[in-house]
Amino acid sequence: MGLNFVHSHFEKNFKPMFNLLFKKQLTIVAASNVRGFRSPPRSPLIASLIIRLFSSNSEIPCDQRKSFTVSYLINSCGLSQEATNVASKKVTLKSPENADLLLTILKNHGLSDAHITKMVTISPNILLAHPEKTVLPKLQFLNSIGMPAPDLAQLIARTPGILRCSLRNRIIPFYECLKNLLKSDKKVITVFKRATAYFLLNPLQRMPHNVAVLKKYGVDESKISFLAVHNPQPLLARSDKLVKLLDKVTELGIDISKSIFIQAVKVLYSTTKSSWEAKRKTYHKWGWSESDISMAFSFHPVCMNLSEKKIMSEMDFFVNEMNCEAKAIARQPTVLFYSLKKRSMPRCRVVKLLMVKGLIKPSCSLASVLRMTDKTFLEKFVVKYHNVPRLLDVYRGNLNLRDLGFDSRELARVKLL
Protein backbone atom coordinates (compact mmCIF):
# COMPACT_ATOMS: atom_id res chain seq x y z
CA MET A 1 0.00 0.00 0.00
CA GLY A 2 1.41 3.32 -1.03
CA LEU A 3 0.82 6.81 0.26
CA ASN A 4 -2.03 7.33 -2.26
CA PHE A 5 -3.94 4.34 -0.82
CA VAL A 6 -3.49 5.60 2.75
CA HIS A 7 -4.69 9.05 1.70
CA SER A 8 -7.73 7.57 -0.08
CA HIS A 9 -8.59 5.38 2.91
CA PHE A 10 -8.38 8.32 5.28
CA GLU A 11 -10.54 10.47 2.99
CA LYS A 12 -13.28 7.88 2.92
CA ASN A 13 -13.38 6.51 6.47
CA PHE A 14 -11.59 8.70 8.99
CA LYS A 15 -11.48 12.24 7.65
CA PRO A 16 -14.42 13.74 9.66
CA MET A 17 -13.05 12.40 12.94
CA PHE A 18 -9.48 13.29 11.99
CA ASN A 19 -10.50 16.85 11.17
CA LEU A 20 -11.85 17.33 14.68
CA LEU A 21 -8.82 15.74 16.32
CA PHE A 22 -6.44 17.76 14.19
CA LYS A 23 -8.15 21.03 15.15
CA LYS A 24 -7.80 20.12 18.81
CA GLN A 25 -4.13 19.26 18.25
CA LEU A 26 -3.56 22.64 16.60
CA THR A 27 -5.05 24.33 19.66
CA ILE A 28 -2.75 22.38 21.97
CA VAL A 29 0.31 23.15 19.81
CA ALA A 30 -0.56 26.83 19.65
CA ALA A 31 -0.95 26.96 23.41
CA SER A 32 2.34 25.13 24.01
CA ASN A 33 4.18 27.47 21.63
CA VAL A 34 2.92 30.42 23.63
CA ARG A 35 4.43 28.87 26.77
CA GLY A 36 7.75 28.43 24.99
CA PHE A 37 7.47 24.75 24.08
CA ARG A 38 7.65 23.16 20.68
CA SER A 39 5.36 20.45 19.37
CA PRO A 40 6.87 16.96 19.10
CA PRO A 41 8.39 16.11 15.73
CA ARG A 42 6.33 14.11 13.28
CA SER A 43 7.57 11.52 10.80
CA PRO A 44 7.82 12.60 7.12
CA LEU A 45 4.98 10.19 6.25
CA ILE A 46 2.56 11.70 8.78
CA ALA A 47 3.59 15.25 7.84
CA SER A 48 3.02 14.54 4.15
CA LEU A 49 -0.32 12.92 4.89
CA ILE A 50 -1.50 15.91 6.94
CA ILE A 51 -0.45 18.39 4.25
CA ARG A 52 -2.26 16.46 1.52
CA LEU A 53 -5.39 15.99 3.59
CA PHE A 54 -5.75 19.59 4.59
CA SER A 55 -4.63 21.24 1.39
CA SER A 56 -7.41 19.37 -0.40
CA ASN A 57 -9.80 20.17 2.43
CA SER A 58 -9.47 23.95 1.83
CA GLU A 59 -11.65 23.81 -1.26
CA ILE A 60 -15.39 24.04 -0.63
CA PRO A 61 -17.50 21.21 -2.15
CA CYS A 62 -19.49 22.27 -5.22
CA ASP A 63 -22.88 21.97 -3.56
CA GLN A 64 -21.76 24.27 -0.71
CA ARG A 65 -19.96 26.94 -2.74
CA LYS A 66 -23.02 29.08 -3.36
CA SER A 67 -23.96 29.36 0.30
CA PHE A 68 -20.32 29.90 1.23
CA THR A 69 -20.02 32.70 -1.34
CA VAL A 70 -23.11 34.42 0.03
CA SER A 71 -21.79 34.11 3.57
CA TYR A 72 -18.36 35.44 2.56
CA LEU A 73 -19.78 38.45 0.70
CA ILE A 74 -21.82 39.42 3.75
CA ASN A 75 -19.44 38.60 6.60
CA SER A 76 -16.01 39.31 5.07
CA CYS A 77 -16.87 41.99 2.47
CA GLY A 78 -19.71 43.78 4.24
CA LEU A 79 -22.23 43.61 1.40
CA SER A 80 -25.92 44.08 2.12
CA GLN A 81 -28.28 41.22 1.42
CA GLU A 82 -29.53 42.99 -1.71
CA ALA A 83 -26.01 43.61 -3.02
CA THR A 84 -25.06 40.03 -2.17
CA ASN A 85 -27.95 38.67 -4.20
CA VAL A 86 -26.58 40.50 -7.24
CA ALA A 87 -22.90 39.77 -6.59
CA SER A 88 -23.38 36.05 -5.91
CA LYS A 89 -24.74 35.64 -9.43
CA LYS A 90 -21.46 36.97 -10.82
CA VAL A 91 -18.92 35.16 -8.67
CA THR A 92 -18.57 31.80 -6.93
CA LEU A 93 -15.76 31.24 -4.45
CA LYS A 94 -14.10 27.84 -4.27
CA SER A 95 -12.27 28.57 -1.03
CA PRO A 96 -11.61 31.46 1.34
CA GLU A 97 -7.79 31.46 1.07
CA ASN A 98 -7.41 33.46 -2.15
CA ALA A 99 -10.02 36.05 -1.21
CA ASP A 100 -8.69 36.35 2.35
CA LEU A 101 -5.16 37.03 1.10
CA LEU A 102 -6.50 39.55 -1.42
CA LEU A 103 -8.39 41.48 1.26
CA THR A 104 -5.37 41.40 3.56
CA ILE A 105 -3.13 42.88 0.85
CA LEU A 106 -5.69 45.58 0.07
CA LYS A 107 -6.08 46.50 3.74
CA ASN A 108 -2.30 46.68 4.08
CA HIS A 109 -2.38 49.28 1.28
CA GLY A 110 -4.90 51.48 3.03
CA LEU A 111 -8.30 50.17 1.99
CA SER A 112 -10.89 50.30 4.77
CA ASP A 113 -13.83 47.96 5.20
CA ALA A 114 -16.01 50.57 3.49
CA HIS A 115 -13.63 50.72 0.50
CA ILE A 116 -13.69 46.93 0.20
CA THR A 117 -17.48 46.81 0.37
CA LYS A 118 -17.72 49.38 -2.42
CA MET A 119 -15.07 47.60 -4.51
CA VAL A 120 -16.73 44.18 -4.26
CA THR A 121 -20.18 45.64 -4.89
CA ILE A 122 -18.93 47.19 -8.14
CA SER A 123 -16.80 44.22 -9.23
CA PRO A 124 -17.41 40.95 -7.33
CA ASN A 125 -15.07 39.08 -9.70
CA ILE A 126 -12.13 40.95 -8.20
CA LEU A 127 -12.22 38.35 -5.41
CA LEU A 128 -11.02 35.78 -7.95
CA ALA A 129 -7.93 37.77 -8.96
CA HIS A 130 -4.56 36.33 -7.94
CA PRO A 131 -3.51 38.42 -4.92
CA GLU A 132 0.26 38.29 -5.42
CA LYS A 133 0.58 37.98 -9.20
CA THR A 134 -2.28 40.20 -10.38
CA VAL A 135 -3.16 42.67 -7.62
CA LEU A 136 -0.02 43.35 -5.58
CA PRO A 137 2.20 44.53 -8.50
CA LYS A 138 -0.37 47.23 -9.45
CA LEU A 139 -0.57 48.49 -5.88
CA GLN A 140 3.23 48.57 -5.63
CA PHE A 141 3.52 50.47 -8.92
CA LEU A 142 0.95 53.10 -7.90
CA ASN A 143 2.80 53.46 -4.60
CA SER A 144 6.09 53.86 -6.46
CA ILE A 145 4.89 56.89 -8.44
CA GLY A 146 3.87 58.60 -5.22
CA MET A 147 0.13 58.08 -5.02
CA PRO A 148 -0.95 58.75 -1.42
CA ALA A 149 -2.60 55.82 0.37
CA PRO A 150 -6.00 57.56 0.79
CA ASP A 151 -6.12 58.37 -2.94
CA LEU A 152 -5.04 54.84 -3.83
CA ALA A 153 -7.80 53.40 -1.65
CA GLN A 154 -10.45 55.61 -3.25
CA LEU A 155 -9.21 54.76 -6.74
CA ILE A 156 -9.37 50.99 -6.14
CA ALA A 157 -12.76 51.22 -4.43
CA ARG A 158 -14.24 53.29 -7.27
CA THR A 159 -12.47 51.59 -10.19
CA PRO A 160 -11.51 48.04 -9.18
CA GLY A 161 -11.13 47.16 -12.86
CA ILE A 162 -7.74 48.84 -12.80
CA LEU A 163 -6.44 45.85 -10.81
CA ARG A 164 -7.28 43.57 -13.72
CA CYS A 165 -5.62 45.70 -16.40
CA SER A 166 -2.22 44.58 -17.60
CA LEU A 167 0.49 46.43 -15.72
CA ARG A 168 3.03 45.97 -18.52
CA ASN A 169 0.77 46.62 -21.49
CA ARG A 170 -1.73 49.18 -20.16
CA ILE A 171 -0.97 50.87 -16.85
CA ILE A 172 2.75 51.59 -17.30
CA PRO A 173 2.38 52.78 -20.95
CA PHE A 174 -0.53 55.02 -19.85
CA TYR A 175 1.64 56.43 -17.07
CA GLU A 176 4.58 57.03 -19.41
CA CYS A 177 2.35 58.72 -21.99
CA LEU A 178 0.95 61.08 -19.36
CA LYS A 179 4.38 61.74 -17.82
CA ASN A 180 5.74 62.67 -21.23
CA LEU A 181 2.90 65.19 -21.66
CA LEU A 182 2.56 66.55 -18.13
CA LYS A 183 6.20 66.34 -16.96
CA SER A 184 5.02 65.86 -13.39
CA ASP A 185 4.17 62.79 -11.32
CA LYS A 186 1.85 64.95 -9.22
CA LYS A 187 -0.27 65.79 -12.27
CA VAL A 188 -0.15 62.21 -13.50
CA ILE A 189 -1.42 61.04 -10.11
CA THR A 190 -4.29 63.53 -10.39
CA VAL A 191 -5.28 61.91 -13.70
CA PHE A 192 -5.04 58.42 -12.20
CA LYS A 193 -7.16 59.51 -9.22
CA ARG A 194 -9.95 60.41 -11.63
CA ALA A 195 -9.34 57.47 -13.91
CA THR A 196 -11.94 54.98 -14.96
CA ALA A 197 -11.46 51.76 -16.90
CA TYR A 198 -12.25 53.89 -19.98
CA PHE A 199 -8.80 55.48 -19.80
CA LEU A 200 -7.07 52.13 -19.73
CA LEU A 201 -9.07 50.46 -22.48
CA ASN A 202 -8.66 53.04 -25.26
CA PRO A 203 -5.74 52.92 -27.69
CA LEU A 204 -2.94 54.93 -26.09
CA GLN A 205 -1.49 56.00 -29.43
CA ARG A 206 -4.46 58.34 -29.78
CA MET A 207 -3.16 60.68 -27.11
CA PRO A 208 0.08 61.86 -28.82
CA HIS A 209 -1.77 62.16 -32.13
CA ASN A 210 -4.58 64.21 -30.56
CA VAL A 211 -2.07 66.45 -28.82
CA ALA A 212 -0.64 67.20 -32.27
CA VAL A 213 -4.17 67.94 -33.56
CA LEU A 214 -4.79 70.41 -30.74
CA LYS A 215 -1.49 72.16 -31.39
CA LYS A 216 -2.38 72.41 -35.07
CA TYR A 217 -5.57 74.27 -34.09
CA GLY A 218 -3.52 76.69 -32.01
CA VAL A 219 -4.11 75.29 -28.53
CA ASP A 220 -1.04 76.00 -26.37
CA GLU A 221 0.64 73.36 -24.21
CA SER A 222 -0.63 74.77 -20.92
CA LYS A 223 -4.25 74.31 -22.02
CA ILE A 224 -3.51 70.83 -23.36
CA SER A 225 -1.99 69.90 -20.00
CA PHE A 226 -5.00 71.37 -18.20
CA LEU A 227 -7.29 69.33 -20.45
CA ALA A 228 -5.30 66.16 -19.75
CA VAL A 229 -5.51 66.66 -15.99
CA HIS A 230 -9.13 67.80 -15.69
CA ASN A 231 -10.87 66.22 -18.67
CA PRO A 232 -8.62 63.71 -20.49
CA GLN A 233 -11.40 61.88 -22.36
CA PRO A 234 -11.12 64.03 -25.53
CA LEU A 235 -7.42 63.17 -25.75
CA LEU A 236 -8.34 59.49 -26.01
CA ALA A 237 -11.14 60.00 -28.53
CA ARG A 238 -10.85 59.14 -32.22
CA SER A 239 -9.02 61.94 -33.97
CA ASP A 240 -11.83 62.54 -36.46
CA LYS A 241 -14.24 63.06 -33.55
CA LEU A 242 -11.82 65.50 -31.92
CA VAL A 243 -11.51 67.48 -35.16
CA LYS A 244 -15.31 67.76 -35.45
CA LEU A 245 -15.47 68.87 -31.84
CA LEU A 246 -12.86 71.59 -32.37
CA ASP A 247 -14.65 72.80 -35.49
CA LYS A 248 -17.90 73.01 -33.51
CA VAL A 249 -16.18 75.02 -30.76
CA THR A 250 -14.95 77.62 -33.21
CA GLU A 251 -18.32 77.64 -35.03
CA LEU A 252 -20.01 78.57 -31.74
CA GLY A 253 -17.72 81.55 -31.32
CA ILE A 254 -15.33 80.22 -28.70
CA ASP A 255 -11.87 81.72 -28.87
CA ILE A 256 -9.45 78.79 -28.58
CA SER A 257 -6.88 81.05 -26.94
CA LYS A 258 -9.21 81.70 -23.98
CA SER A 259 -9.60 79.50 -20.92
CA ILE A 260 -13.34 78.99 -21.57
CA PHE A 261 -12.24 76.76 -24.47
CA ILE A 262 -11.52 73.85 -22.08
CA GLN A 263 -15.01 74.01 -20.62
CA ALA A 264 -16.54 74.21 -24.11
CA VAL A 265 -14.62 71.09 -25.20
CA LYS A 266 -15.78 69.23 -22.10
CA VAL A 267 -19.44 70.12 -22.68
CA LEU A 268 -19.42 69.31 -26.38
CA TYR A 269 -17.61 66.03 -25.83
CA SER A 270 -20.08 64.84 -23.19
CA THR A 271 -23.28 66.06 -24.91
CA THR A 272 -24.98 63.82 -27.46
CA LYS A 273 -26.47 65.24 -30.63
CA SER A 274 -30.01 64.45 -29.49
CA SER A 275 -29.43 66.11 -26.11
CA TRP A 276 -27.99 69.22 -27.80
CA GLU A 277 -31.02 69.47 -30.07
CA ALA A 278 -33.40 69.10 -27.12
CA LYS A 279 -31.72 72.04 -25.32
CA ARG A 280 -31.79 74.15 -28.49
CA LYS A 281 -35.52 73.60 -28.90
CA THR A 282 -36.14 74.47 -25.25
CA TYR A 283 -34.29 77.78 -25.54
CA HIS A 284 -36.11 78.48 -28.82
CA LYS A 285 -39.41 78.24 -26.93
CA TRP A 286 -38.34 81.37 -25.04
CA GLY A 287 -37.46 83.28 -28.16
CA TRP A 288 -33.74 82.64 -28.26
CA SER A 289 -32.24 82.71 -31.73
CA GLU A 290 -29.24 80.65 -32.82
CA SER A 291 -27.03 83.66 -32.17
CA ASP A 292 -28.48 83.95 -28.64
CA ILE A 293 -27.66 80.29 -27.99
CA SER A 294 -24.14 80.77 -29.35
CA MET A 295 -23.70 83.87 -27.17
CA ALA A 296 -24.90 82.08 -24.04
CA PHE A 297 -22.64 79.12 -24.82
CA SER A 298 -19.63 81.38 -25.32
CA PHE A 299 -20.26 82.99 -21.92
CA HIS A 300 -21.03 79.78 -20.03
CA PRO A 301 -20.90 76.53 -22.05
CA VAL A 302 -22.51 74.46 -19.30
CA CYS A 303 -25.85 76.13 -20.12
CA MET A 304 -26.18 73.35 -22.72
CA ASN A 305 -25.89 70.72 -20.00
CA LEU A 306 -28.95 71.88 -18.07
CA SER A 307 -32.03 69.69 -18.26
CA GLU A 308 -35.02 70.89 -20.25
CA LYS A 309 -37.06 70.93 -17.03
CA LYS A 310 -34.50 73.15 -15.30
CA ILE A 311 -34.36 75.55 -18.25
CA MET A 312 -38.16 75.81 -18.44
CA SER A 313 -38.69 76.43 -14.71
CA GLU A 314 -35.91 79.02 -14.47
CA MET A 315 -36.98 80.91 -17.58
CA ASP A 316 -40.63 80.84 -16.51
CA PHE A 317 -39.78 82.47 -13.18
CA PHE A 318 -37.44 85.12 -14.57
CA VAL A 319 -39.59 86.04 -17.58
CA ASN A 320 -43.14 85.67 -16.25
CA GLU A 321 -42.72 86.67 -12.60
CA MET A 322 -39.66 88.91 -12.60
CA ASN A 323 -40.44 90.50 -16.00
CA CYS A 324 -36.93 89.88 -17.29
CA GLU A 325 -36.38 89.88 -21.05
CA ALA A 326 -35.72 86.34 -22.21
CA LYS A 327 -32.99 87.41 -24.60
CA ALA A 328 -31.26 89.36 -21.83
CA ILE A 329 -30.72 86.09 -19.97
CA ALA A 330 -28.64 84.84 -22.91
CA ARG A 331 -26.08 87.52 -21.96
CA GLN A 332 -25.92 86.27 -18.37
CA PRO A 333 -26.72 82.51 -18.52
CA THR A 334 -25.13 81.86 -15.12
CA VAL A 335 -28.44 82.95 -13.51
CA LEU A 336 -29.98 79.68 -14.71
CA PHE A 337 -27.73 77.58 -12.48
CA TYR A 338 -28.78 78.65 -9.00
CA SER A 339 -31.38 76.81 -6.95
CA LEU A 340 -34.76 78.25 -7.89
CA LYS A 341 -36.41 77.71 -4.49
CA LYS A 342 -33.42 78.31 -2.23
CA ARG A 343 -31.83 81.31 -3.94
CA SER A 344 -33.47 82.75 -7.06
CA MET A 345 -37.06 83.05 -5.82
CA PRO A 346 -36.45 84.49 -2.33
CA ARG A 347 -33.74 86.93 -3.41
CA CYS A 348 -35.47 88.18 -6.53
CA ARG A 349 -38.79 88.66 -4.72
CA VAL A 350 -37.12 90.63 -1.92
CA VAL A 351 -35.35 92.90 -4.40
CA LYS A 352 -38.48 93.41 -6.47
CA LEU A 353 -40.51 94.28 -3.35
CA LEU A 354 -37.95 96.93 -2.43
CA MET A 355 -37.99 98.25 -6.02
CA VAL A 356 -41.81 98.49 -6.10
CA LYS A 357 -41.74 100.42 -2.83
CA GLY A 358 -39.14 102.78 -4.27
CA LEU A 359 -36.53 101.93 -1.67
CA ILE A 360 -33.86 100.92 -4.18
CA LYS A 361 -33.20 101.98 -7.77
CA PRO A 362 -35.81 100.81 -10.30
CA SER A 363 -33.38 98.54 -12.11
CA CYS A 364 -31.03 96.01 -10.58
CA SER A 365 -28.57 93.46 -11.98
CA LEU A 366 -30.05 90.00 -11.75
CA ALA A 367 -26.65 88.31 -11.98
CA SER A 368 -25.14 90.41 -9.17
CA VAL A 369 -28.16 89.76 -6.91
CA LEU A 370 -27.77 86.00 -7.31
CA ARG A 371 -23.98 85.92 -7.27
CA MET A 372 -23.36 87.63 -3.91
CA THR A 373 -22.94 85.58 -0.74
CA ASP A 374 -25.83 84.95 1.64
CA LYS A 375 -24.24 87.19 4.24
CA THR A 376 -23.82 90.09 1.81
CA PHE A 377 -27.37 89.74 0.48
CA LEU A 378 -28.87 89.67 3.98
CA GLU A 379 -26.95 92.76 5.06
CA LYS A 380 -27.69 94.71 1.89
CA PHE A 381 -31.35 93.86 1.26
CA VAL A 382 -32.89 92.28 4.37
CA VAL A 383 -31.26 93.64 7.54
CA LYS A 384 -31.02 97.14 6.10
CA TYR A 385 -34.76 97.19 5.32
CA HIS A 386 -35.97 95.14 8.28
CA ASN A 387 -38.78 97.65 8.93
CA VAL A 388 -40.51 96.79 5.64
CA PRO A 389 -43.62 94.74 6.57
CA ARG A 390 -43.49 91.06 5.66
CA LEU A 391 -40.04 91.38 4.02
CA LEU A 392 -38.62 88.54 6.09
CA ASP A 393 -41.61 86.32 5.17
CA VAL A 394 -40.92 86.98 1.50
CA TYR A 395 -37.25 86.11 1.96
CA ARG A 396 -38.14 82.90 3.77
CA GLY A 397 -40.40 81.87 0.89
CA ASN A 398 -43.60 82.06 2.87
CA LEU A 399 -45.12 84.75 0.64
CA ASN A 400 -44.94 85.86 -2.98
CA LEU A 401 -45.54 89.45 -4.07
CA ARG A 402 -49.15 88.92 -5.13
CA ASP A 403 -49.92 87.75 -1.59
CA LEU A 404 -49.00 91.28 -0.46
CA GLY A 405 -51.71 92.84 -2.64
CA PHE A 406 -49.60 94.14 -5.54
CA ASP A 407 -51.33 93.92 -8.89
CA SER A 408 -49.66 92.83 -12.11
CA ARG A 409 -49.25 96.42 -13.41
CA GLU A 410 -47.31 97.50 -10.33
CA LEU A 411 -45.07 94.46 -10.54
CA ALA A 412 -44.51 94.92 -14.28
CA ARG A 413 -43.19 98.44 -13.73
CA VAL A 414 -39.90 97.21 -12.37
CA LYS A 415 -37.51 94.76 -13.97
CA LEU A 416 -34.44 92.86 -12.97
CA LEU A 417 -31.90 93.22 -15.74
Automatic annotation (TrEMBL):
GO MF assignments: nucleic acid binding
Entries under InterPro entries matching the protein: MTERF (IPR003690), MTERF_sf (IPR038538)
Keywords: Transcription, Transcription regulation, Transcription termination, Transit peptide
Top-rank lineage group of the source organism: Eukaryota
Gene3D superfamilies for the chain: Transcription termination factor 3, mitochondrial (1.25.70.10)
UniProt keyword annotation of Transit peptide present: yes
GO BP field: DNA-templated transcription termination
Pfam families found in the cross-reference section: mTERF
PANTHER family: CGI-12 PROTEIN-RELATED, MITOCHONDRIAL TRANSCRIPTION TERMINATION FACTOR FAMILY PROTEIN
Family that this chain belongs to: Belongs to the mTERF family.
Protein name per UniProt: Mitochondrial transcription termination factor, mTERF
The organism of origin for this protein: Handroanthus impetiginosus
